[in-house]
Design a protein that fits this description.
Layout (H helix, E strand, L loop, with lengths): L6 H29 L3 H32 L6 H8 L11 H14 L5 H32 L3 H55 L3 H12 L11 H17 L6 H30 L1
């Protein structure tokens, strides 16, 4: 690049930079349109592709206006020479700034990303491009105004307004819509992951009810184990048992005792009577 010494060199550099930027955008936008899922975003990007093609044509006019301006006789011979040589030949340059922004955008779009988040990411990449153009066209317009290039200033002003409109439209799509959808998709995905983790844990975890029943049965007191007795112990045990039975014989009740007494009295009376009858019979 030649040495830049004044504002004319700066406006030349800015316009060549913008021209390269527009060429790269025209090449990159179809991939963004293809990746976008939201229909409104697709439409906005498709419309901007057409407008970008117009911006490139407009920059061709800008270069021509500057060259024509230098050829006007009333501007003087010295000034004529400076402007007429400003865009002479097929001089071009590569916009490294736009190249970097597009590379960054392609990298994001090729990441493993869900649909809702992808649309929000595409808007972010597109707005970075818009902001670069807004900066470039604003600077070029200011240079044209200072150099009193009225026609050039008008063309650059028109493009600048369209870049602002495109940026505002992308903001409307993002704020309150696609950004919100991206956030909701993230929350929903986290909930699904949590549910999946819980399900897998429940599948691998033993049945709580069965485990609880096993635990409760394990905690129940076991019946005491009967100790085997040897022969001497069994003998003693039997004696104690017999003694216990003898001691535990029931005594007759008062009623039964009374009956017994009465029976014994009756038996005595009968015996006496029988003896008496025998004596009487003998004496006779």
């Amino acid at each position: 690049m030649e040495k830049m010494s004044d504002l004319k060199d700066l406006i030349k550099n800015e316009i060549l930079d913008l021209y390269s930027a527009e060429e790269q955008i025209i090449e990159a936008l179809p991939a963004m349109i293809n990746k976008a899922q939201n229909k409104d975003l697709k439409k906005a990007l498709s419309n901007h592709l057409k407008i970008t093609e117009e911006h490139k044509k407009r920059l061709d006019k800008v270069k021509q206006f500057i060259t024509d301006q230098g050829q006007q006789a009333e501007e003087g011979q010295e000034k004529k020479g400076l402007f007429s040589r400003l865009f002479s030949g097929s001089e071009t340059q590569k916009c490294r700034g736009m190249e970097g922004l597009i590379d960054e955008g392609n990298k994001v779009m090729n990441e493993d990303i869900n649909v809702e988040a992808l649309d929000a990411a595409i808007i972010a990449c597109a707005q970075k491009v818009e902001h670069y153009e807004i900066s470039g066209y604003g600077t070029a317009r200011a240079y044209a105004k200072e150099l009193q290039l009225k026609d050039v200033e008008k063309l650059l002003e028109k493009t600048l307004s369209e870049e602002y409109e495109a940026d505002d439209l992308l903001t409307q799509l993002a704020v309150g819509r696609l950004n919100v959808q991206a956030e909701q998709a993230t929350s929903s995905e986290e909930q699904n992951e949590s549910s999946s983790v819980r399900s897998s844990r429940e599948e691998t975890r033993p049945n709580r009810k069965a485990t609880s029943e096993r635990d409760s049965s394990a905690n129940k007191p076991r019946p005491p184990v009967k100790k085997k007795e040897n022969s001497s112990e069994r003998s003693v045990s039997r004696k104690e048992s017999g003694s216990s039975k003898g001691n535990n014989k029931e005594k007759p009740s008062a009623k039964e005792g009374g009956k017994g007494k009465k029976n014994s009295k009756g038996s005595s009376a009968k015996t006496k009577k029988s003896t008496s009858n025998k004596v009487t019979a003998k004496s006779r």
